[in-house]
Design a protein that fits this description.
Length: 203
Amino acid sequence: MRILVGIDEVGRGPLAGPVAVGAIAVPLDFDVLRAFPGVADSKILSEKKRERIFEMLVASGERGGARFSVEFSDATYIDANGITKAVSSALARAIRSVAPNPKDTRVLLDGLLSAPRAYTDQTTIIHGDATEPIISLASVAAKVVRDRLMVRLDTKYPEYSFARHKGYGTKAHRAVIAALGPCPLHRLTFLHGDTKNKVRHCP
């Protein structure tokens, strides 16, 4: 049976935390909009709506419907290899998790993303997260899983308020970095000035 996979990434721009890639696999004739009413690009959905759609996705997987995987590349990997390679690494792991047989797989990807070469039937769509429901669903999965991770990490580094801004470079977040220096979750290559040399080794 041929399957359709949608892929999107979340967290390319934050100063801290991993980049996340979501992959969704469904039968080729699967009606995503019917199964997940209200699905849209994660950036335009409220947190409550994203969580509701994600719970529907989990339930679908438990019934043998849509399968999903969200994979990360952390700040250390990003600093060592660059954000483009970090996204590619997470993407390769995510797609192989849900679609291990490239010959039976059609792949739709958002923006400038590309799947490993073995997946010959792949199409990259600019603004695909807004126009292709399967990519929208992948963006929701990646966003929810990454946000939940940043909330958990907030308990380890509470002074940085990761639960609030999820690692993005808000004014308040930049102010804390300037005052305390970065912690091990920060992408040092994304920081400027002397702060990147003042990593705090928090417990």
